[in-house]
## 1
Amino acid sequence: MIDPARQNAAAIKYLNVFPGANVSTATIENNYVNTQNEIRNFNDFDGRIDWVATHKDTLFARYSYGQDVFDKTVSVVGTPSGFAAGNNVNHPRGFVVGETHVFSPSIVNEFRFGFTRPLYGYINPFEGEAFSANLGIVNANRSPLLGGGALIGGYNSEISYTGDGGPYEVPQNSYQESEALSWSHKAHTFKFGTNIIRREVDFFQGNDSKGYFFTGPGTGDFTGYEASEMVAGFNDNYSISNVDAYFHTHSWETGYFAQDDWKVSNRLVLNLGLRYDLYTWPVESKNYQSNFDLTTGTLKRAGTDGNSNSLIDTNKYNFAPRIGFAYDLTGKHTDVLRGGYGIFYYQVRGGIGNVLSNNPEFNGTASYSAYSGYRITFSGEAPNNTNLNTAATADLPLPTFGNTSIEADPTNVNVISYSKHDPTSTIQEWNLQIEHQFGQNSVLDVAYVGAKADHETNTYSYTSPQLITGAKFFGSKGLGVTVNTNNGSFTYDALQARFNRNMTHGLQTTVAYTWGHALDDATGAYSQTGGSTILINANGPLFSANYGNTDNDQRQAATVSILYELPFGRGKQFASQIPRAADYVVGGWQINPFWTAGTGTPFNITINPENSSGPSDRPDIAGSAHNGEFKRLPANGNYQWFDPTAFTPPPVTTTTALGPIGIYTRPGTLERNKFAGPGYDTLTASLFKNIPIAEKIVGQLRFEGYNLLNHPQFTNPDSGYNDGTFGQINSTRQHSERELQGAIRITF
């Protein structure tokens, strides 16, 4: 029992909002079930017009429109709950115009101009209602733009998460101009051109704008249970931002190129080219952005004290040579050797959540953790380090928008840092392939394809606990530092084979096979699997310990595609003179089987800290893991994918000489992404029936089946060393079950 005098009134009101249990369980957890409804509306169209103005000028224009909405109901009735619950909008718009002008039979100019405006947005549940304020939870509904509930939760087990980070809107304008002039002269075809893009990314986005009350780790630090933590204790961490502006950023991406297709002889053609790219970093229209300096521990604001408006240098040395060739080996056009090499540049910026406007003076968050002495309840703040929640009578902290006074000595905030002098990310690609033609209709192509990327972006937490000591960089200041630096690398090597048989006697076939291997040491902002933690020691991040198979490394993949027009009906091999009425039933059938199979993708095995003050790690590997054994476990019906006993924890500190006991002293011996999960094997097939309706109108009946044999496509196993189901598979991939559908199509 909790003394009524110790009960936080706002917490009691909050807990009373939850509905009663509707599932009988042996405990008070997992006792409520509700089905969320998802409604998706798509209203999209495209329109195009072509105009032959003169015999030398052709023009076209195209417009695209989208009005797509995804609505999702809450997970706990009566509360603003459930991931992505609310109104999610996507309203893309775009147009492009183009003109091709023929100066002479040998000189042609192509001009294109395009504009796109994708708009993404989110409106949270209970928008327009002071949901949290009505319960006594402060700071959440302080503006008409901030309706609904503050984000509240822990590990989503003892009590369900509710609330959200706040509404957001991200309209983006992109203007693109491209022009290419082609000139054919004797054995050469020269081409010169430009490609210029201006990107404008605007956004209103609250980062924990209504407050994020986090209870954990596990069951809370004060009472041992999440619900009682809210009522009689304190939140383990409170973070909040004071969003007060619409941010407007713009940047440029420009490219200039020249190339020559040179027909050296009847058997040899060379492609020689050079491209120059210039990419600028985003500039905010009012200089509402800053960059955290790791050396000085200060924030550098754009446009002040000698800082540029973009805060990151523009790399001006992005020259990209390209070369390719095609050689007729026999002079009979049946055997051709092709190859090529090129350098390409690209810029990775990590999405809205990783832009420099999200530093704490502007759109960033400030954090107040119990570990640092803060005592936060739903309704107020108590003096530091007290354990009496009734003393929480002071106002909750709230950062001030544009508060530049924190730049010299930021504390208790989350900051973002980019390297000021980073080179542009670069990828080199090369290939060598041989093609052989069989008869008139079949071609076999075998190729080696390689790539090497340099200066890939690593995005990581610089303030994660360190090996050996458990200390954190800037720990005394309570900072959370996200660093972005272009120091990663990537390699890819593959053998690719493809056989294609063109349509002959109603049959077309394509068979393809790829063996490939990709390795990297980068954890970018767009990692497909969330990436892996960069381990840190007192000297800094250990990037080399992160080298391993890429998150999407797949060793083998194969596809077989067949299109077969059944030989029945008018004009076909059989029943070619059948009456037209009968042909509506017998003729016009087409079957299209498509088989695809491949090996699995990697999973990264991790081990939790032995001491909560230390970092997570990868375990040591102490024996054969027997990866892929796929053994059924009678106890729970799961499948054992590998032997969990093949792994052991890395060594930990055993004295307090350098820090707490139980901190990992080194990275585990197991490589990142060492093992791969289950592969896939699916057969998809479609059956089409073409029905002539009028001279230029054709109807089509379509029957399609996905994963027709309903082969289970399993997910990767549980890769958490500390989990009770470590090494086990207990689910299949989303949307991998057999699906059947029918459709009617009219072409006119």
## 2
Amino acid sequence: MVGHLVELSASECDALLRSHTVGRVGIVERGFPLILPVHYQMVEHPAGPRVRFRTRADNVIDHPGGPVSFQLDGVGSDRTSGWSVLIRGVLVTAAPLDIAEADSIRVLHHTESLEIVPIETTGRRLIEANGCWTFDPRGYL
């Protein structure tokens, strides 16, 4: 029997985003998709929570105003399930960080703070029906 996907609620997506610190940012660079790992944090904003990360000035992702995606995923400890959260939005320059926030996502030479203004956040969980998911972590070593 084949596994099935279950939609994650907004609160489940938010909880997963807040419980991790490394995700992937996706942009289009010179007509091609570019996916980069980033150390991030969730920050509160009057319009709702946002993903914040830092980059070097003039880095390939230091281009506020453009479309962006952010993905976070994981595998259950029993390796029979997995999940993924995807945010699609717009990249904006973030307000300066206070000291505590800056320390939590400090990366050497990364001086520019960017945030993703979410337009859509979706999440899914894969549940394997027969308890034998085809994922093998050795494929990532």
## 3
Amino acid sequence: MPLQLGGTMYTISAKNLIQTGFSIDDAKQLVNEIEKALLQTSDDEKIVIDFTDVKFFTTQFFNNSVGKYVLKMSPCKFNKKFEIKNLSSVGQSTFQHSYDNAVSYYKLPPDKRLEQDEIIDQSEEF
């Protein structure tokens, strides 16, 4: 089972779910576990996502998995709730790029977010 209780934190062992952090399907696998963890944890319990032995990451993977929680919760709440650990150096820089993009989007005024959403929606139609 990929979710483990450990004191005041839950640990999701990503290697039990995915071999790579590459695709949207990989992201969906992780999101399913994150959603379970969110339902089972209180506000002050941390969710640790351990990427030990997971290789190959894309920004698309992080945008569609943990990045969506930065936007949904706020960067501050995300940082309090989640800990991302044991990423390779490439994984860390890829995650950071996704995180920084999410933070930049989060800081946009509502009208600018709408503009960005329209651009994204148009690009997804192709």
## 4
Amino acid sequence: MVTGAARGVGRAIGQHFRPAGATVYLVDHDSDEVKVAAKEVDAVGLAADVSQTADVTRVMDRVISDTGRIDVLVNNAGILRDGMLWKLTDEDYESVMAVHAGGTFRFTRAAVPHFRRQGSGRIINITSYTGLHGNPGQSNNTMAKAGIIGFTKTAAKELARFGITANAISPNAQTRMISSIPLRSSTSSPPASPWVASRRRGRWLRRSRSSPRTRPPTSPASSCASTAVSRCELSGRGRQCDRLHRRDPRGLTARPRRSREGKRLRPAAELEPTADDHSRRSRPRSSTARSAAIPDGGAEGRKDEVAMQVSCAFPTTLDTPDKIAVAERIGYQRAWIYDTPQQSPDVWMTLALAAERTERIGIGPGVLVPSLRHPMVNAAATATLCHLAPGRVAVAFGTGFTGRRAMGYGAITWAFMDAYIRAYQGLLRGEVVEWEGARMQMLHPDGHAPARPVQVPILISALGPKGNEVTKALGDGLFSTLQLPDFAGDYSWSAYLAWGTVLDDDEPDDSDHARAAGGPGWALSLHGASEFGGPDAVRKLPGGEQWLEVVERSPDGQRHLAVHSQHCVGLNDADNAAWEAGGHVTLRDVTLSGDRAQVRDKLEELRSAGITEIVYQPCGPEIDRELERFYDVASSLAGAGKVDA
């Protein structure tokens, strides 16, 4: 259904939906013209005043009566009542608001019950240049169109859990209605809506519990679609936009990628970004953006509405591809695997095998340690995996808690991380980048790698302010573990890696099961205390003295080997000594271990803190059983809309 569709942008959108195989309903207040347009487009024309609830209800009922469903709603209806601010009358203001903002609200409200019943739906709201930048003589239109952008963001957040996406498009088109407005030269109306509304695009955007995420079209440049625009409406720079679309990892809006060198990355024949593209990506919300990004009630109000994804992680082993297939069958939404070559098979080879053995589950390295590979190596591997598992790949980077410290090195600096990710991102965009004093580019011919740009969301593991700044600048989200940073709730994609086990009722903390399945995660409290706080921090923990006694038997230059042996997999000699000395009493404090109610409460605490993806690493001899037990508890929150499961 397309409103305001008797002519101009609305009719063009309806016309582009027909080749996509849609049954199209054109809605307009002009009954004669909408009938003419419907005949030309091969659609159904319906007359309605979008500012009147009764008309909206009548039209919606007609569509549902005819087809039994509605898949796509395009809110395009609008009018102009222009004049300088001091000359506008109440009627000029109220009529524009009633059609633009009111019509968008009324039709969306009417469609949502049907979308929810279907478990899917696409809402596409048409905004404009004036809503983003203002235009003299159009203060009423500016308020209405800006309101549509904010409404779209809120609708996206509220409805994502039901498989419904909401996007705003700012088309650049010359129509009769705006012919007298001196903005810029324009070309034809963009066929953006059919693709934004498509099932393929929908999976690319939304948080789905069953459908795989697929990539956007890869020709000519893996961007949203091909159409004619003269410049980006959203950047306001008066030249071609230097930003490039890529997937929103949490599925609320499509977001762009900026060229760090200021190059024009896409031709003038590509789709304009959605209204949210140039506003904040997936970075923390600043105070200036907070009112638009967070529902009433402030940050806490937003956190209460977060639906947390349930994902898993594995310390890369030879059977990890099979375990990821098991996780997919159980219902997990993503599987991360570790980049720890000192104790694991190669992360990229393992992910390639996992891609072949799965169809839906998201996969990716979590986390890559930059110093272990040249950025070209990781870029080429990422491109290959994106080809093997289109739309399912995400990549996380970290400074090397295990991947470097287990080999005797310290963590990399955040300056190095910043430079590395910029080079890696530039390579995937197809740019010429400089690394280690040399200039390079992905030169892969057709058939050797996906066409550039290769678009993949990036998470960054950060605990402190420096890492937070890099994540804000370069990442699509946050990947945290061991401790919850204060800024964890500031990201629209905030993943938290945790260990533990679901204990039976009245099961003691030192049972054989608790030791095997919960012990490796518990041991990280000792490993982390040693690495970040030194011996004094370890001694403060139950069993810490006994743990240090074993570790210090190793030569000074080899103690890191004693610490990281069996890391995330089992208990080493030092861990066993601490456990036997009573250290197990902290099991429920430092891991997600506990009975079902306790684990559920801990997940709720994480969700309330702003975590949007819980990443659970199972341990012990019965990995399948641990995956099932944890998912069973986590998915019990789904009934309240608190977990995507």
